[in-house]
What does this fold into?
Amino acid sequence: MDNSANRVRAVSAADDEKRLAAEAAAELVESGMTIGLGTGSTVAHLLPAIARRELSEIRCVATSVATEEQARGLGIPVERFDELSRLDIAIDGTDEVTPDGWLIKGGGGAHLREKVVAAAAARFVVIADSSKPVAALRGPVPLELFGFGAASTLARLGGEVEPRDVPPSPDGGTIADYIGAIGDPAALAARLEADPGVAAHGLFPPTMVSEVFIARGGDVERVSIPPR
Ligand code: 5RP
It folds into this structure.
């Protein structure tokens, strides 16, 4: 088999794993729940799986316009996230996950809203294919910079941060990536949060994560992240 055929097979295997993890997580959603919907190609499998459950009286918020549009197209009700004060569950994909539950999110640039939604959820469930687990975070770490003063924030953060060539976020932020060394993720998170121009970074601590569903081949491993 040539290289392009191998690549197609690998992409299709990863997509099958995304679907399996998403379908397992969709089983956690019940009628009457308030639900946070993440963003990305794994979540794109979650939405039809939720729709197929034909649940009643669910209230959902979406972390991106793409998710909102797909959900509405499937008949899943989506509302603005300004009236719900808490969510029963949020389900989202990830770019990387360590064994102790640190995540890097934001490959799709939706990490600010994803973090706000995850923080509001009593249970935050991460769905992943087998390419996502890593022994230690590698990066890059997505950032959202306030649009106000973005050039000055970039200048202050220096050569370790590169703006991403994408449109501003729905909240007007500039999407960028921290490409320097990660080392201790808690220390890096604190360093990034200390800059007044950084609206959000894609480091999600284990304290935010309840469970990770990781699909490998035809199996889904469910890893609980202990509360600290
Ligand atoms: C978007 C995200 C996604 O959850 C993350 O990039 C994983 O995406 P995918 O499910 O397409 O692999 O954080 O901002």
